[in-house]
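Dear all,

This email documents one entry for the complex benchmark we are building for the journal club exercise. For each entry we list the sequence lines for every component of the assembly. Then comes the predicted three-dimensional structure of the complex as a token string, followed by one or two observations. Please use this as the template for your own entries, and keep the labels exactly as they appear.
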Amino acid sequence: MAYLLQVDFKMNGPFGDEMAEAFSDLAKSINEEDGFIWKIWTESPETNESGGIYLFETKETAEKYIDMHSKRLAGFGITDVNAKIFATNSKLTEINKGPVK
Amino acid sequence: MAYLLQVDFKMNGPFGDEMAEAFSDLAKSINEEDGFIWKIWTESPETNESGGIYLFETKETAEKYIDMHSKRLAGFGITDVNAKIFATNSKLTEINKGPVK
């Protein structure tokens, strides 16, 4: 069963195309992480927040990733990180066409 | 551009198949909401939390949904709801195979 990791934190940019340019190498490296399936990059310039929704193959790989990622964010000066790992409810998600399998 | 709504709250179950049975009619109704694209249903029996990750066509339809959904959750006795709406960064999300278009 796939596990979902939701992460958000305060960040004063960059956002949009500038964010995409700054983090494209980081994004490529995320594709190589253990158990990684996909990530949606999230951003809210209005509230100075950013983050991501990730899908991982197992709870363990999601936990391993957020441990590593929290340290990386701390290196960027971002320490107040909201991170939660959830199981996904397959039957309900299927009714609502959620992209999990 | 698609907007992502992340919602989570404390809930003492039901989880798993029992949750799917309790909320399958609600799930079907969500497919009819304005601007709705998909929802992943999330649950964490270990921490007594539940929620969902939604994709909407516009920020306005995401806002309209969470206004209605917050009132519905309050009707279930759930009032301490974390809800955030984010834009999605298309370029980075595409690198990471995120299911947004």
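Observations: Chain B is about 40% helix and 35% strand. The longest helix of chain B spans residues 59-75.
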